[in-house]
Amino acid sequence: MSEVKMSKKFWYLTRVSLKKKIGSKWFLITNIILALAVIGIININSIIKFFGGDFSDNLTVYVIDNSNTFNFFETTLDALDEDNLIKIEQTSKTKDELTKDLENSEIIVILNENDREFLTSEIISNETIDNGIYQEITSAINASKSTLGMIKSNVNPEILANISAPAKVERTILSDNASIDENMNIVMTSVFPTIILPFFMLVVFLVQMVGGEICEEKTTRSMEIIISNVSPKMHLFSKVLASNIFVITQGLLLIVFAGVGLLINKLLTGTSPLSFISSIAGNIDLSILTDKLLILIPTTLILMLLSFFAYSVLSGILASMTVNIEDFNQLQSPVMLISVVGYYLSITASMFSGSTLIHVLSYIPFLSAFLTPTLYIIGEISVFEIFISIIIMVLFIYILLKKGLKVYKNGILNYSTDKVWNRVFKSMKN
Fold it and tell me: 213 Cβ partners below 8 Å, 6+ apart?
């Protein structure tokens, strides 16, 4: 009968803690803002166009050709314009006629023949031109100048055609995995940070919520009433469970917001979600991830859930030794720093290719959820090593609970005026 009562008390504490988080106006307002932000970012292209902008940066280049080199200029610029952002059009209009109604998305290029320099040119635009596009246009002009010079020098037409033709580059990569690794690096620098960032944010929320709630109960002295009715172990687990339910719910909501954003994007632009992600990643073939995702998704979810639990337990244990908000901030800072280090290591992992240090760090609890999926994607670790990280994480949680619950029990009603780190070391020693 007593076990039933204790179970009811446990679930009551969990419900109260969860209601305080999810049932608040702060939670509702925050998620409305998050939903608008996520959906807005995914559909930024359509939003900018709706307000009269042009997100695609497509340009029309009007060419006034006074040198008979338009064909060379057009061929060269087409070859340089890999993203097809430039539309080239030869015109018979005069310079004054074109500049009169020139728009921001239009550029005028005037090619003039010159006896001494072969070709001179003028580029006209309303505003400054993107540096990359400007370099492409000037490169096309220089190539046209060289071609015109060779024509005037009576170079053989066949030789001239061969000189003007773009160079053929045959690329040979000896390593079987090199092309895959190249694509993986693109994924790591574009797609993956977008995915790992929400996990980092949820860890930050989790640490703040568990520790902040326990610290609040201690500072208001309500902890004495709570602990007189339930055990410290039950109290800690109720806080940990409520906070983990909250961050998992928040994570699922972020996925829903992203799904709604992608659906709206598809309705507005006709772009499928996979095509949208591929375009963000630089138009790479995401099918290369198919085999890895079958292992990556379940193992990453397991590591993330274990990390949530470990972070929340550690945060609760540290918060039990606080007596005011200043103590809380001091003790939570190292935990927050660990998560920051894990995040930055995950997005820069490709720079440590082949490093033994990065392999060792991927086994360390609190860092493994950030690093292990990253290293697996870029081919630095195997599936076996992922499972080693999971096993180490489980063993760490077991030790953390076994030793940490004793510290929690000693610290939860300790209102000593000693310096906070002195209380920590005394609790650990005892």
Answer: 17, 20, 239, 243
Contacts of 58 (CB under 8 A, 6+ apart): 85, 86, 87, 105
Specify the pairing of strand 118-125 against strand 86-90.
Answer: unpaired
Query: What span, in angstroms and rounded, lies between the C-alpha atoms of 7 and 17?
Result: 15
Record the tokens describing residue 233, joined without a space: 């172990």
Residue 119 bridge partners (DSSP): 113
> How many residues can be counted in the chain?
430
The string of pLDDT tens digits covering residues 249-278 is: 998 998 899 888 888 888 877 666 655 555
Predicted TM-score (pTM) of the model is 0.69
| Bridge partners of residue 213, in order along the sequence | none
On whether the CB atoms of residues 57 and 107 are closer than 8 A, the answer is no
**What DSSP state is assigned to residue 129?**
P
d(CA 161, CA 155): 10
Fill in the amino acid letter for 219. Answer: T
CA angle 234, 239, 244 (to 5 degrees): 125
pLDDT digits (tens, 9 = 90+) for 83-123: 677 888 888 888 888 888 788 778 888 888 877 778 888 88
Pairing of strands 118-125, 106-114: antiparallel
- The stretches of 228-271 forming alpha helices (DSSP H) are 232-269
Q: Is 337 exposed, middle or buried (0-12, 13-18, 19+ CB in 10 A)?
A: exposed
CA gap 24, 250 in Å, rounded = 14
Look at residues 5, 130, 119, 109 and name the one whose alpha carbon lies nearest to residue 56: 130
- Look at residues 141, 106, 140 and name the one whose alpha carbon lies nearest to residue 124: 106
- What are the pLDDT digits (tens) for 363-383? 999 888 888 888 887 778 888
Distance of CA 135 to the CA centre of its chain: 30
Residues 379-417 pLDDT 10s:
788 888 999 999 999 999 999 998 888 888 887 877 776
Give the DSSP per-residue string, 11-59: HHHHHHHHHHHHTSHHHHHHHHHHHHHHHHHHTHHHHHHHTT--TT--E
Give the CA count within 13 Å in the CB-facing half-sphere of 92: 0
Contact 392, 368 (CB under 8 A): yes
Listed residue (308, 312, 191) closest to 258, CA to CA: 191
